[in-house]
Specification:
The chain is an all-alpha fold and 56 residues long. It has one domain. The protein is built from 2 helices and no strands. α1 runs antiparallel to α2. The radius of gyration is 16 Å and the shape is rod-shaped.
Length: 56
């Protein structure tokens, strides 16, 4: 969970820098790709964790 949060924060910071800094548009693109990949990873982890677990 810490990894997901850390990657989301990094993506947001890169996105802000890429949007504000002139000529650093590639950082904004990298941030968007990183954020989408991070959310996909979080969704996969959440989906696998919520499955039916056998009771003992």
């Amino acid at each position: 969970m810490v990894l997901i949060l850390a990657l989301a924060i990094v993506a947001i910071v890169l996105g802000i820098i890429g949007a504000v800094a002139n000529g650093w548009f590639f950082l904004l693109i990298i941030a968007i790709i990183l954020f989408v990949a991070d959310m996909a990873y979080a969704g996969i982890r959440w989906y696998q964790g919520s499955g039916q677990h056998p009771t003992r």
